[in-house]
Amino acid sequence: MYVGELLKGLDRMPSGVPGLDNLIGGGFLPGRVYLITGPPGSGKTTLGIQFLVEGANNDEKGLFISLFETQDVILRDMLRYNFGILEHFQSKRIAFYDLGEILLSTNRELTWDELFKLLIEIIKREKAKRVVIDSFSLFESFVSDPAGKKKALGRFVRLLRSLEVTTLLLAEMLSSEKYTDEYYLADGVIVLHHFMRNYQMVRALQILKMRGVPHDSNLKRLRFTTDGIRVYPEAPL
Question: Which end of the chain is flanked by fewer CB atoms within 10 Å, N or C?
Answer without folding.
Answer: N
